[in-house]
Amino acid sequence: MAHIINDGNFDEVVTKSGKVVMIDFWAEWCGPCRMIAPIVDEMSAEFDGKAVIGKVNVDECPGITTKLKIKNIPTLLFFKDGAEVDKIVGAASKSTIVSKLNSLL
C-alpha cells in the first residue's frame, strides 16, 4: 500500500527521505485516478526499499496541492533529493510510470 502523504508529513516523507519519491495526486470522485490506483499500490510493493511511493488526496490536502500547483488529476510527481524532477499528468500505463521511476533511480 502506498504511503499516505498529507500537509503534516510531506516534508518528512518527501524532502527528507533521501530516496526517489513518486506521489499520486488523486481524488475519490476521479475516474482516471481510480484506474491507476491499483498500479500505484503494486508499485509501492515492487519498489519497497528503493523508492517511496505515496498518495495525496487533493480534497483532503489543499496545502500541498496548491503549493505544488496541481491543476489536473491524476498527476504523478517525481522527486529526487527533495526536489521535483518530473511529472506525468493524466492516467498512464504501468510500463510508462515504471520506466519514468526507474530512470530516476
Descriptive keywords:
single chain, 105 residues, alpha/beta, Glutaredoxin, five-stranded mixed beta sheet, 5 strands, 28% strand, globular
Description:
The protein is α/β, with parallel strands linked by helices and 105 residues long. The protein has one domain (3-98): Glutaredoxin (3-Layer(aba) Sandwich), CATH 3.40.30.10. Helices cover 37% and strands 28% of the residues. It has a five-stranded mixed β-sheet. The radius of gyration is 12 Å and the shape is globular. It starts with a strand and ends with a helix. The model has no long low-confidence stretch (mean pLDDT 95).
Number of domains: 1
Radius of gyration: 12 Å
Q: Tell me the name of the CATH class.
A: Alpha Beta
The side-by-side strand order for the widest beta sheet comes to 1-3-2-4-5
Write the layout of secondary structure elements.
Elements: E1 3-4, H1 10-15, E2 20-26, H2 31-46, E3 51-57, H3 62-67, E4 75-80, E5 83-89, H4 94-104
